[in-house]
Amino acid sequence: MHHFPRLLGALLLATALSAEPGAVAHHAAAARPSATVRRWMKGMTLREEVGQLVFVAFPGAAPNVRSREYLRFVRLIRDLRVGGLILTNVANGRTIPHAEPYALAAFLNRVQRIAKVPLLVGADFERGASMRVANTTAFPHAMAFGAAGDPALSRFEGQVTAREARALGVHWVYYPVADVNINPDNPVLNIRSFGEDPHAVAAQVAAFIEGAHSDPRNYVLTTAKHFPGHGDTSVDSHLNLATLGASRERMESVELVPFRAAIAAGTDAVMTAHLAVPALAPADLPATLSPAILTGLLRDELGFKGLVITDALEMGGIAKAFPPGDAAVRAILAGADTLLMPSDPDAAIRAVVAAVEDGRIPRRRIDESVGKILAAKEKVGLDRKRLVDIEGLGDVLNAPEANEKALEVAERAVTLVRNQGDLLPLAAPARACFVVLAESRDSNEGLEFSQEVRARLPHTAPTMLDTSHSRADVDAALARLTSCETFVVAAFASVTAYQGSLSLGGDLPHAMETLLGTSKPVALVALGNPYLLRSFPAVAAYLATFSSVPTSETAAVRALWGEIGIRGHLPVSIPGLAARGDGIELKAAPAGRPVAP
Question: Which of 124, 179, 268, 311 is catalytic?
């Protein structure tokens, strides 16, 4: 039975989300629910309302309409009435290539036509749309923006991300990352964070939100994550429950600073973290399931009135201890509005419905959350237009001026931490040997780096090694490098879910130690994890890009050749080796040979 009159009061506050783009939701005055929200809500059963809280993953392909995969989505949308989708690059438990833009947009148009209420589509566009979608503007990771040190660049990224996302049919961006990465051993944040200084992180977070909200025609919902702060952990919550051991006082001065800035900047949503916070809640209870954290801290103390979305409920930090139905009920009771990627959507919906029917969850909690979600759908214009212009994608995506700016960010981020004997820029590149250490044989890591080197040295082929090479393979490859005066090693160590570590894998550490064992200087270029210097402190030169994307590879080669000035500064400290803010600046000379500034 539908209880519409009771919904009205719960929707008054939720409708603040329908205010003009850029408004701070918790400052907006309560108002009567819009006609659109009332119309969408009017015929819903309790089960359909609960379905609106659930967001399920999809890989961005366009499967055949008779395929099992496509029919599964039809059932989720038409029968379960899920509220939305999240774009991932995982299908059937394995990583797949980035989505092709036209196939993605075509699939979203097709499923939007099926949905009785328009679907809200989200994505982790942490490097802009390029994180999940091919042929889009290739921004580097957040820490590169931190090293560049100019929030205006994050504001620009927000603008471009919003424009490309909306063109593709994505309305909700799960970004910016508001975590302060003060733990060098953090295996899941690292370069996804802007850095270790909470106020610098806060400035970047606010700037991205402002950019993403700057154009009402391309407004996207933004998400500050992962509350109350995942930066001081050493466990990947994709695998197990992490723990934030900070005191409440420390959290006030570190973890919570960027989240307060995000709320002040008008973030539409906050994503929860699957970590225990003993200072605030029981030590075995993830923040995602804690009323003290989601309601007591986030809602009551910080005054956040927008959408609270869980991190993926299929992650080990939740799924290993809580069955899908139990996790869903606990998250709603804690204060979450949306349930992201439950491993069993049917079980999650059944459990929440049962909890409402037996009185464990007040019906007004469901009403309030559904009202917020529907108001968000109206805010991004889904009541007026739910389909995207597929033919027009080429007018929006991968714009030359946006890519030029993305490359500028990568170049401004390049940071020279050590430079013994003025090894860099290379005085004689033709007499150097270049080695690429990639994380996987199947990745494209190092391809751009190698092409850039060969464009300058046509007869030079960098030695490519990855974790699949045995020690014998490594030794044989390095034994052929006999004419080198200098070694330049481009090492990739990027953040990957379910990996649990950011060190070099396989026998790649042996490759580094072999090169360091020679009498020749080694320049290490860290394309990703900036803390890599801790593993190889004997290198003569250390250059960090804070990202593993192709634009960062290009920027690194330009810096090695002295074609660009080097002006980045560490947004994190490297314990025992370098402090936050360190960075040797070099100016690019007209002839391409930098000199000290």
Answer: 311
